[in-house]
């Protein structure tokens, strides 16, 4: 009990070390992060009320992610050209607008429109707030700061379905959107007096061609999400090739601009590219856990959706405890050792789920805890190390590229997991299909181990 209290006190102390502005910015980011994963629990309710199919209702999440990905690469330009107070107020205002549209929606199409608007705001906020936290921290304190950021991001993703499950148990789905509106208005009012200018303005021209070419990111993410539904049809290949073509032109365009939208020179710094991929792999472990664990609970052990959401709490709780610890250990152990710890935990989680995960409910719960624990030791330490490899003026570009690629890798990993389950379930029981899928997913931590061998970053001195 004493140790538990001491751990809680240390996390609180770490949080208090941050400026008031950083703490309130994290609170806004936490609330908007929750919106990523809240809708999945509401799918059955919305399908029944509006008479839509599963493929249609999934657009509440797919559309949100596509909108996020379109805006993320714009964040360096926004930080350079828009005063911070105006930028934050605009982001939160756009999110509230989208939430209002979704809350009062008379038809399902209006809910999708609201979610698209929300996604644009969240896509702008994520790289912006992480860049601000990194730029305002000394190199020695970045591990700790990003550990707290990891606590916020990871916990939000994990608790989103839990919160929505509890709300839907007692009130209408519209109340879920109403809760976001009320809390965000309170938070944005409170942050006004403490907004601190961290990133100096460096105005330069908005390149409209680059902005149009960013459609390639959204198209690629849409193609990834569309694959399980349509397969390798000609239309899918056309969408994929057009999206990749736009991205190739976008990359070429950035090399020619004196002030690029997204400075791809960050990829030339030793250790950055490997760390970028490691954050994506780690995020994959986290997002796969939120997808595959409810299938274990509901399809194998016949647990209700409400209790299925509550069974995700232990893993989310452990994740919140370990993120600040991992941030501190980055300074002492260095990135490679943390990656080894994280990938070992992720591998142990998939191995447990792939061997005895269907024999006892609590084995699957433990598997989820191991997956999310591994994320704590990998994602934010890798993000910190990647940005430590960059000069300060490129940190916003480095963060924007990582957050964008993390979304793409995460979406691809969910498609891989879902496709494996569907493939195996066609010839065996659903429980056995989940076991086989978890075994194949061991390739993710295996790739993580290989990437750690080429890391050039060392522990912070």
UniProtKB/TrEMBL annotation:
It is a multi-pass membrane protein. Residues 21-461 form the Major facilitator superfamily (MFS) profile domain. It is found in: Cell membrane. The keyword Kinase does not apply. GO terms for molecular function: transmembrane transporter activity. It comes from the Bacteria. GO terms for cellular component: plasma membrane. InterPro entries: MFS, MFS_dom, MFS_trans_sf, Sugar_transporter_CS. The chain crosses the membrane at residues 25-46, 58-79, 91-113, 119-137, 144-167, 173-194, 206-228, 234-252, 273-297, 303-319, 339-363, 369-387, 408-431, 437-455. Keywords: Membrane, Transmembrane, Transmembrane helix, Transport. PANTHER family: MAJOR FACILITATOR SUPERFAMILY MULTIDRUG TRANSPORTER MFSC. This is MFS family major facilitator transporter, multidrug cation symporter. It comes from Liquorilactobacillus ghanensis DSM 18630. The lineage of its organism: Bacteria, Bacillati, Bacillota, Bacilli, Lactobacillales.
């Amino acid at each position: 009990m004493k140790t538990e209290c001491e751990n809680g006190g240390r996390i609180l102390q770490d949080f208090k070390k941050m400026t008031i502005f950083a703490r309130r910015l994290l609170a806004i980011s936490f609330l908007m992060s929750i919106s990523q994963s809240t809708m999945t629990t509401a799918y059955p309710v919305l399908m029944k009320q509006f008479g839509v199919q599963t493929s249609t209702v999934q657009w509440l999440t797919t559309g949100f992610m596509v909108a996020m990905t379109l805006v993320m690469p714009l964040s360096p330009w926004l930080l350079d050209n828009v005063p911070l107070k105006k930028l934050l107020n605009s982001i939160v205002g756009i999110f509230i607008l989208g939430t209002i549209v979704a809350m009062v929606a008379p038809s399902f199409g209006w809910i999708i429109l609201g979610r698209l608007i929300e996604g644009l705001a969240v896509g702008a906020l994520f790289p912006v707030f992480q860049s601000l936290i990194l730029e305002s921290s000394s190199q020695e304190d970045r591990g700790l700061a990003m550990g707290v950021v990891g606590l916020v991001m990871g916990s939000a993703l994990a608790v989103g379905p839990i919160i929505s499950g509890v709300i839907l148990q007692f009130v209408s789905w519209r109340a879920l959107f109403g809760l976001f509106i009320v809390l965000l208005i309170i938070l944005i009012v409170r942050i006004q007096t403490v907004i601190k200018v961290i990133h100096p303005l460096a105005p330069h021209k908005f390149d409209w061609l680059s902005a149009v070419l960013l459609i390639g990111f959204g198209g690629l993410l849409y193609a990834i999400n569309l694959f399980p539904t349509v397969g390798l049809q000609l239309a899918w290949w056309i969408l994929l090739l057009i999206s990749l073509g736009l991205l190739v032109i976008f990359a070429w365009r950035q090399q020619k601009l004196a002030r690029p939208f997204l400075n791809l020179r960050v990829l030339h710094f030793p250790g950055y590219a490997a760390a970028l991929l490691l954050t994506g792999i780690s995020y994959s472990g986290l997002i796969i856990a939120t997808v595959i664990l409810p299938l274990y609970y509901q399809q194998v052990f016949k647990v209700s959706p409400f209790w299925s959401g509550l069974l995700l709490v232990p893993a989310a709780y452990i994740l919140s405890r370990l993120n600040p610890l991992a941030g501190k250990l980055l300074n002492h152990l260095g990135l490679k050792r943390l990656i080894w710890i994280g990938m070992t935990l992720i591998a142990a989680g998939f191995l447990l789920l792939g061997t005895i995960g269907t024999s006892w409910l609590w084995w699957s719960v433990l598997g989820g805890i191991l997956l999310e624990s591994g994320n704590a030791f990998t994602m934010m330490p890798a993000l910190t190390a990647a940005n430590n490899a960059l000069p300060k003026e490129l940190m916003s570009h480095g963060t924007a590229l990582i957050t964008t690629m993390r979304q793409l890798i995460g979406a691809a990993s969910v498609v891989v997991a879902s496709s494996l389950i569907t493939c195996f379930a066609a010839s065996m029981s659903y429980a056995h299909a989940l076991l086989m899928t978890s075994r194949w997913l061991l390739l993710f931590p295996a790739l993580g181990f290989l990437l750690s061998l080429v890391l050039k970053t060392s522990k912070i001195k």
